[in-house]
Amino acid sequence: MSYAVQIFYPMEKISKTVKKVIEDLKSKKTSLDYEKVKSSLRKILSPKETKHLYIHSFRKKILRVNVDSVVLLYQLDLKKNLILERLRKDFRFDSVEKIIFCLRSLPIKNKAKSNARGA
Known about the structure:
Elements lengths: L1 H27 L5 H11 L2 H4 L2 E7 L2 E6 L2 H9 L1 H10 L8 E6 L7 H6 L3
Parallel strand pairs: 2-3
Antiparallel strand pairs: 1-2
């Protein structure tokens, strides 16, 4: 009997340790408030530019932004370092190390709007 107790006792410790590690990782997870990033991008860029942007994701300290215009993608790519510097300095988004702009269609919010845009 004591042998069985010795086998299961460490397993309980391991399961508790694993749960604790997972909780710690969840609390340390770098997350970004997308609404704050959107509002700060609106302050950095012009309203015409922000109309064509959609924040796709933030993972591994990389902010991915979808753009639906090739011309705007090129312009934003040229201003990438300036945008990143302003996000860090003025709006204190220190967790963003890199911005990637991708050419993608923006998500459709409403059918009436999509028909008005000709999509």
